[in-house]
Specification:
The complex is a heterodimer of chains A (about 425) and B (about 270). With about 425 residues, chain A is of the alpha/beta class. Chain A is built from 15 helices and 14 strands. In chain A, strands 3-4-14-9-10-13 form a 6-stranded mixed β-sheet, with helices on both faces. In chain A, strands 7-6-5-8 form a 4-stranded parallel β-sheet, sandwiched between helices. In chain A, helix 9 packs across helix 11. Chain A is globular, with a radius of gyration of 20 Å. With about 270 residues, chain B is an alpha/beta fold. Chain B has one domain: TIM Barrel (Alpha-Beta Barrel), CATH 3.20.20. Chain B is about 50% helix and about 15% strand. In chain B, strands 1-2-3-4-5-6-7-8 form an 8-stranded parallel barrel, surrounded by 9 helices. Chain B starts with 8 loop residues before the first helix and ends with a helix. The chains are: A alpha/beta (about 425), B alpha/beta (about 270). Chains A and B meet through helix 1, helix 8 and strand 11 of A and helix 3, helix 5 and strand 5 of B. The complex binds pyridoxal-5'-phosphate.
């Protein structure tokens, strides 16, 4: 297998100002503009340096356990009776999710830049764990902001971060979820910008973060495209990934961007359903989601009439965010990618089905992507194929799921 | 005691700085958010500070996610939002204050998203009509400001940008070229909030900015006491006090007025 660990792909986007079409940019206080400039040039230098690639690819192989395999989901495919379903197993990457790909890449970059104090935000805790792992490995200092609601629903990850030597700082403002953790991380960065590297966890935020995170995650699609061809001799009819901020999805989609016969499908969190307004489906509910500016970038933002950011709801902490990475807004506008959603209930069902039929307990985030495959496959011919990005494993979610499935009601199937 | 204002927008700010300069001091601009602790108290507080002799105002428009603000202003603007404060209400507040005879320059200060939701051209036009003189958007660096620059220029409204201790000569030049009215000098790397001490490097920092920018410099972030005001007044063309006055305004209109007055007294020779 060829080693393509950072696809800095000769795509023209983002442009020099950090825009993907009309989305992206840099809407941040002046204080951190010089730090973004510094990050941009340090990143450009790093990816031009073969030793950076060598160091990262060595870690990807010997530490993260890449390449992660593709598994053919035989029993699930048979049960659905339509398209064949394949799973890209990011759940098998060290720490149990794709987030480590970006955390290691940015961690190496921070080290190269001589910044020893690392801050990060986390929702589900997977990015926090990824960052705490990278900083433990590289001998850096780690401080993770996490909303107190998320701390409650992702206890195992909080414990893991602490075990890995990170400080977990509870955030009590606003909705006390991912959005508010990013607010606090940005406030920390503005204050400590000269000594601190902000290790942002998804393909969002001010330029150059959406590009850097995409590049470090593009290993997912680069591997998967080659593996899939090796296994089947062709390309999948569709790639499916869940979309929180959008990093695992963009990482999967990037390698397939010119394969016009492969549909790219992003799955947002439908929460309690679109009508309930309690969801995080930024592309599905255009009554309350419009282009706007949040956390330094112009993209779709769930907001009220007055431009105040709305609180979102999802069972899954990693998808519970009112905006979405700017490149997804662009891909949607181009109609290159298509976005849909899965409700809490559908995700919970998919969580159980995949566990029962394949022996794989997915993260609740990833279960949203599985839910879309379950919806689509039956209507597709048997010789078609869906490639689902299984972005993470579900161990972290067991407490929430146990609470939702009362012991008197045995799990279905 | 309605008195018609003869000059508006950037011209009004120019006159404000000229007057302060002729008195060998800096112009003093309080920041206060509309809707805190209530809508009517915020108007009374601003009117009382106007009576106390401040030179101008930053009129805060609350936002749900104020990433450049510390705990005091976060909490105050959160209460303002819980009180139902909207962008149209903030414009209405300016109109009302003008109707009450408040004649000092007023700049609208708010994060980008609510202004974008309102419509940037429409916002600038309506702000001007309400009696505002300029605009400060803390998450809008000059590179992204095209959406406001045209309408501000048309309406004669100041569009203020910021410089920080991290800004290099290239940034200083860029901001000096694009800002109108004045440059907002962020005194420290950090968020808003009252501080016990001002940074030691201010004299040198201001001197560096003066070499690259000839327009008025108004400093904010952390200025909290009459003693701070006195020191900054010797250094800059203007200064902004936010958190300390917001905290006082949370106690009572009189507490904010008295703190503003003690700062006015500290800088007047
Ligand atoms: C396993 C897993 N998948 C997906 C996500 C969503 O993030 P993104 O959209 O950036 O991939 C998260 C976020 O925490 C996650 O932990």
């Amino acid at each position: 297998m060829t080693e393509i660990y950072i696809d800095t792909g000769q795509t023209e986007l983002p442009d020099a100002r950090g825009y993907f079409g009309e989305f992206g940019g840099r809407f941040v206080p002046e204080t951190i503009i010089p730090a973004l400039d510094e990050l941009e040039s340090a990143y450009a230098e790093a990816i031009a340096d073969p030793s950076f690639h060598a160091e990262l690819s060595n870690l990807q192989r010997t530490y993260t356990g890449r390449p992660t395999p593709i598994s053919y989901a035989r029993r699930l495919s048979e049960a659905l009776g339509g398209a064949q379903i394949y799973l890209k197993r990011e759940d098998l990457a060290h720490t149990g999710a794709h987030k480590i790909n970006n955390a290691l890449g940015q961690g190496l970059l921070a080290k190269r830049m001589g910044k020893r104090r690392i801050i990060a935000e986390t929702g589900a805790g997977q990015h926090g764990v990824g960052t705490a792992t990278a900083t433990a490995l590289l001998g850096l200092d780690c401080h993770v902001y996490m909303g107190s609601v998320d701390i409650r629903r992702q206890q195992p990850n909080v414990f893991r971060m602490k075990l890995l030597g990170a400080e977990v700082i509870p955030v009590e403002s606003g909705s006390r979820t991912l959005k508010d953790a990013i607010n606090e991380a940005m406030r920390d960065w503005v204050t400590n910008v000269e000594t601190t590297f902000y290790l942002l966890g998804s393909a969002l935020g001010p330029h150059p973060y959406p590009k850097i995170v995409r590049d470090f995650q593009s290993v997912i699609g680069a591997e998967a495209r080659e593996q899939f061809q090796e296994m089947t001799g062709c390309l999948p009819d569709a790639c499916i990934a869940c979309v929180g901020g959008g990093s695992n999805a963009i990482g999967m989609f990037h390698a397939f961007r010119d394969d016009s016969d492969t549909e790219l499908i992003g799955v947002e969190a439908g929460g309690r359903g679109i009508e309930s307004k309690e969801h995080a489906a930024r592309f599905a509910d255009l009554d309350i989601s419009r282009p706007g500016i949040l956390h330094g970038t112009r993209s779709y933002v769930m907001q009220d009439e007055d431009g105040q950011i709305m609180e979102t709801h999802s069972l899954s902490a990693g998808l519970d965010y009112p905006s979405v990475g700017p490149e997804h807004a662009h891909l949607r506008q181009l109609e290159r990618a298509y976005y849909t959603m899965a409700t809490d209930e559908e995700a919970l069902e998919a969580f159980q089905v995949l566990s029962k039929l394949e022996g794989i307990i997915p993260a609740l985030e990833s279960a949203h992507a599985v839910a879309e495959a379950i919806k689509r496959a039956p209507a597709m011919p048997r010789d078609s194929a869906l490639l689902v990005n299984l972005s993470g494993r579900g161990d972290k979610d067991l407490d929430s799921v146990i609470a939702l499935l009362p012991p008197s009601v045995p799990p279905k199937h | 005691m309605t008195q018609a204002r003869e000059i508006h927008g950037t011209a009004a700010l120019k006159a404000m700085f000229a007057r302060a300069k002729s008195e060998e001091r800096a112009a003093f601009l309080p920041y206060f958010p509309i809707g805190y602790p209530t809508y009517s108290d915020s108007l009374r507080t601003i009117a009382a500070m106007a009576e106390a002799g401040v030179d101008g105002f930053e009129i805060g428009i609350p936002f749900s996610d104020p990433i450049a603000d510390g705990p005091t202003i976060q909490a105050a603007t959160q209460i303002a939002l819980e009180n139902g404060t909207t962008v149209p209400q903030c414009l209405e507040a300016v109109r009302t204050l003008r109707g009450q005879g408040v004649s000092q320059p007023m700049l609208m200060m708010g994060y980008a998203n609510p202004l974008v939701a309102y419509g940037t051209d429409r916002f600038v036009r309506d702000a001007r009509k309400a009696g505002a003189d300029g605009l400060i958007v803390p998450d809008l660096p000059p590179e992204e400001a095209a959406m406001f620059a045209g309408s501000c220029a048309r309406e004669g409204m100041a569009l203020v940008f910021m410089l920080a201790p991290t800004s290099d000569d290239r940034r200083i030049e860029l901001v000096a070229r694009q800002a109108t009215g004045f440059i907002y000098v962020v005194s420290l790397t950090g968020i808003t909030g009252a501080r016990k001490e001002l940074p030691a490097y201010l004299t040198e920092f201001i001197a560096r900015l003066r070499r690259g920018a000839s327009m008025p410099l108004a400093m904010g972030f952390g200025i909290s006491t009459p003693e701070h005001a006195r020191r900054v007044s010797q250094l800059t063309d203007g200064f902004i006090v936010g958190s300390a006055l917001v905290r006082a305004g949370g106690e009572s209109v009189e507490a904010a007025r008295d703190l503003a007055r003690s700062m006015v007294e500290a800088i007047v020779k």
